[in-house]
Amino acid sequence: MPTGPCLALPRNHRPFSQFGRQLLGKTFLTMLTSQTKAHSCLCNYQKPWRDGVYKCQDCLGEPLYCTGCCRSQHHHNPFHWISQWNGQFFEQSCLAQAGLVIHLGHDGKQCPALADRWDLFEGDEHEDQLEPEDLPFVSGPEFQPKENTMVIIDKSGVHRLEIRCCDCPNALSPDIQMFRHGFFPASFNRPKTAFTFRVLDDFLLDNLECGTSAMNYYSKLRRMTSSMFPHLVPDRYRELMRVARQWRQLKTMKWHGFGHRSDIPSTGELALFCPACPQPGINVLVAGDESLDDDDKNSPSWKYTRSFVMDGNFKAEHLHPIKPFDEVWLSDGLGFMVGKDRYKMHLAEAADMVEKSSCNNHRAVNQANAARHKLESTGIGGVACARHGCFVPHSMVDFQKGERQMNMDYALCEAARHNMEGISRAVTFYDINCQYNKHFRARVDASRFLEMTQDLTIIPGIGLWHVHGHQDSCYVRYASNFIDGIGRIDGEIMETLWAPRGMSSPHRQECLDYQMNDSNFCKMIRMKRTLCRKYKLAMNGITESGKAFDRLDEAAPAHLKTEWSARERRAQSSRLNDPEAMDEYEINIKKAPSRKEIELRLLEEGSARNAAPSRRSVATWISTGLAIEEAQIALLIEVRRMGKRSTETQRLDIARQRDRLQGQIDGFTQSALTHLGEGFDADDDPDDLNVDILDDLDDDPADFSKTSDAWTNSPELTVIPLPSNLGVDRCRHCMAEDLIPLEMSLREGQANDTLHNLRIHLCNKAVLFRTAVRQAKSQALKTRAWSQVTSVQQAVSLHASIYTKTRKQMMKLEPGQDQLQKFKPLLREQLKISTAVGDPNARGQRNESLAWFWSVEVDLGGPDQSWNEEFYRVHWLRAKALRDRWKEEMTLVQLEMDWTCHYFSWRATQWGDRMRESLEKRLPGHACYSGRQSQMYSLLAQDAQAAFQDLQSVSIETGDE
Question: Is this model's pTM higher than 0.85 or not?
Answer without folding.
Answer: no
